[in-house]
Amino acid sequence: MEVHNELTEIKEYLRHHRIAMYAIIVVLIVLTYALVIALKSTRTPLSNTTVQKDAENVSQTKTTTVELKTEYENPFAEETQYVNPFSTSKNPFDTLQ
């Protein structure tokens, strides 16, 4: 009963003092916002997670090599080929070697 009486007294006080009620609401919102920011800043960095460790394991796997059986022969005339003026090499397969 005493708690109920105290709550009704607080309600009556806040009803008469709306500014205090709004101030309490603003304080609660600010505290909630600060708590959210604090929780976001305490996350572990990506380097400590298992995702990073799995990526390192994948990068350490063996690379496969494929031997070239036949060489590509261009069936088109050399004069009609597009030449990229920004390219250092005209052969697009040079980067694969």
Account of the 3D structure:
It is a single chain. With 97 residues, the protein is mainly alpha-helical. The chain contains three helices and no strands. The longest helix has 24 residues, at 18-41. The radius of gyration is 35 Å and the shape is rod-shaped. The mean pLDDT is 75.
Condensed summary:
With 97 residues, the protein is an all-alpha fold. Helices cover 51% and strands 0% of the residues.
Percent of residues in helices:
40-55%
Beta-strand percent range: under 5%
- What order do the SSEs take from the amino end to the carboxyl end, as H and E? HHH
Dominant shape? rod-shaped
Give the tally of β-strands.
0
Give me the secondary-structure category.
Answer: mainly alpha
Report the span from N to C terminus. 86 Å
From the structure provided, what is the oligomeric state, counting identical versus distinct chains? single chain
Cα gyration radius (Å)? 35 Å
| Overall pLDDT | 75
Biggest sheet features: none
Uncertain segments are none
| Number of alpha- plus pi-helical segments | 3
